[in-house]
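Appendix B. Extra example for self-study. Work through it before the problem class; the solution is given directly after the inputs so you can check yourself.
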Amino acid sequence: MFQEYDVIVVGAGHAGSEAAVAAANLGSKVLLVTMNMETIAKMSCNPAMGGVAKGQIVREIDALGGYSGIVTDHTMIQFRMLNLSKGPAMWSPRAQSDRMKFSWKWRLMLEAHPNIDFWQEMVVGILAKDGRAYGVKTSLGLEIKAKKVILTNGTFLNGIIHIGEKALGGGRASEKASKGITEQLVNLGFESGRMKTGTPPRVDGRTLDYDRMTIQLGDENPAKFSYTDTPKLVNQTPCYITYTSAEVHDTLREGFERSPMFAGRIQGVGPRYCPSIEDKVERFSGRDRHQLFVEPEGAETHEVYVNGFSSSLPEDVQFKALRQIAGFENAKMFRPGYAIEYDYFPPTQLKLTLETRLIKNLYFAGQINGTTGYEEAAAQGLMAGYNAHLAIQEEAPFILKRSEAYIGVLIDDLITKGTDEPYRMFTSRAEYRILLRQDNADLRLTPKADALGVMNMDERMKKVREKEQAIVEIGNFLKETSVAPVDIASYLESLNSAPLTQKMKIHKVLLRPHVQVSGLRQNLPELDKMLSQFHPEAVDSAEIAIKYKGYIQKEQEMVDKINRLERVRLPEELDYLEVNSLSAEAREKLQKIRPENIGQASRISGVSPADISVLLVLMGR
Amino acid sequence: MFAQNDTITALSTPTGEGAIGIIRLSGPKSIDIVDDLFKGKNLRKQGANTIHFGSLFSPKGDFLDEVLVSLFRAPKSYTGEDIVEISCHGSAYILTQVLDAMIQSGARLANPGEFTMRAFLNGKMDLAQAEAVADLIASQNQAAHAMAINQLKGGISEEMVRLREKLIEFASLIELELDFGEEDVEFADRQQLLTLLEDTTLKIKGLLDSFQLGNAIKKGVHTVIVGRPNAGKSTLLNSLLQEERAIVSDIPGTTRDTIQERLNINGVEFRLIDTAGIREATDTIEAIGIERTFAEVDKSSIILYIFDAAHLSAKEVAQDIEMLAKKNNAILLVANKMDLVKDKATIYHSDAYPILHISAKAKTDTEQIKSGLYGMIASSNIDPSAPIISNVRHLEALQNALNSLATVKEGLEVGLSGDLIALDIRTTIHHLGEVTGSISTDDLLDSIFRNFCIGK
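Solution. Structure tokens for the complete assembly:
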């Protein structure tokens, strides 16, 4: 019934979908196995893509040839560039998505791919012999063979949904949990753990009084996620902001004794940065209100997502508290919030390719690795997909450095440090965020994807070359063209910047704090004319390259320095337990994580600078 | 495979003859090697921290000496390995023979500092402590000794922990704004950040200041004696050194520098430098001499300015001091020849500098100068019992940190965007990492999640 596939992807969420595309785009024959073809790339939680650090990841996925950015551009209903005042390294695209259209668009794009087949059924185990995986086994008893297997099970492995005192098996509301895989993997020697996450109630938008809330509009001139020619967003739907109150908190407290969290029925570790409303009320009892974002689930549906009100309290408590929120007095609830507990496998059991160390040909991506977020999952899926294909072809693995991409930071963190709580990306996790910007993901990564042989990269590469050329041309123009004091006197005055005393090259003026190209071109018709022939993103990148040159160089120097440590390789057979000079903790951690080089070793928690000196001495440095 | 798995040996007391001399071995074979050459109890069966009397033989069987053998067993030893210390009679011949015997039996001659390096590698001490050991061994005076002991006990680390906390607080406030700008939390305003920055800067400066004292204590306080010709510089130097000379010349092989003398006051070592008189350049040769004087002044920690109170007017003294004071060192004023002064009211005086009145010929006056010099150290705004930076590596790290903190401050003041300010803070943290221990993103995130309600 089935051919032998190159790659089987188990699960079709954000990780699974990107994994299938990635392997298929390199030429692998892929089978995507999902329990439900109606829920491909479903947004289980908030209907949004991107955000601070996450937006950068989506841009990177797009630059590498993944589909998340394209799907988002086609299906978003609002776009905002966050953090505009914090500097270009912090600019973060965020989109409000149409939940149903997002999933639908993904399915159509997957179906359109000639190298991807589908099968709807539950996978109950992998086929493995002598430490190698060679396929999967399904609930109907089918055995499907493949050279590589990528597990992207999300929250489905032994998922339990908690609402108040009720606990139901399930991987998402009204979808059953997946059983068998964890048990088999543990038998094979894998370590597993339990994590928890939660989601807020959804309400009927027609029953809300938006006049009592603050409107939050999209950007006047919305940008996009994909570097390709995806459509520009025209009609935007607003979000709204409201707040809980002391009264709401009192009502929530009444339900605390029926809370699965506080009663200890939930054992999994939840994310500190995404606490439930009851957690916030309990931990920050001094605050008499918490902010809520009221987000539309789509352009046409009336369903609304109450961001910030994640809860596993009993549904009647949720409902009663909701109605006390300003604007929610007559709210009708569509679905209650819930908490979900699921199995994960500590990612320190993986290699940087996301292949497991224990079983060859087996890859993990997404929430199974203890991460949270569509973007983090998608990025891992993409990298697992590429690496599975490359391994089949016996080509060098595709590993991104921390200095090359947030995706590199993400995977290195997971493999090197592991995670105790659901892992989410923050920009602060990246050492080189001046280099890892959303405006240059294409310049950083598209040539790498092209070099791998990803399909249909010609158009993308052409754009990259054009952008590079534009940056050079704009840079030269700014260096060669002078501006007269009178031309920008009023602009400089508006910035509280000293007036020019004589003619000055534009790029010198640009180096002053607060001076921007956008402000200069309004006053300099010649500059405006020159710049208008280029794509606005190229102009942004050119401006950043000039204005931040000193800082970019500084980070580049730091990269070069740390790369020297990265080049000192640690032999795979090294027995750290024998190295008495290492601290006990370092010995244990190094033995477990087996870093590939001293740079990676230096990032392992518990490995001190003294331990690194020891390793350097051992390696003869 | 690993270098430290072999056994090292060295003479642990100074070369030359003494009542006893000690040969030390460290490594897995220490006990076996000595036991094979030792006649007495079976050392292999003896417990840790025990001492045994017996005879020591060469591998060929020649009797070498009657010795005391001290056993230390891993990991409870200085290096964390098995250690044997052999106390022999202190003849250079015997010691060489014993050392040879150890090497012939499989021990390797240790490199300088290798015992301490092993202690460091085996986690018996951190880097600051290992460096303190080197200082302790090299300490030539009481204060340097006390300082090294303080550092060895981890004194520096405690001060660094507090500095580290300040930095985490500061950096996490910046990061909060960057990663959680959409959250409903209160962000620190620029003024708050500047205040916190000022605190941090002061802490680092305090440590840097302590370096000058620390280094001075370690190496001797660089003290230059300056004055016009015939102010009494040489007489003063000679009388200060009168009683020291006997001690100094007792040490064989000590090279006496003609212009630089060492003087120990209450356990602190001062290095006294005599200079050519100032204000006397009438030809080029003299001009060179004065140039040298100012080069010395630049290098010094203390300037001892001496003047002839009977012949030099207050105005002339003030001119000299003004010229010296530019060099930004501590100045001790000495009004000499007080016995010849007729009207004491006309003598230069100042509230800015301590001033001593002497007649160089009186013996008691040298005591006054000594306590004046010591007072310059004791009165510097550093608590002598506080941890002191005495290590160049730390100094460099602190100085780099201070520079990058200044950049942070500048950035805050001109309203630089948060991403760039954060990079400068990271640079600071990176530099201080060497002394404070590293600060990771997880430390910053922990601090954020602990103090702010994050999560929409």
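Self-check: The radius of gyration of chain A is 26 Å. If your reasoning did not lead you there, revisit section 3.
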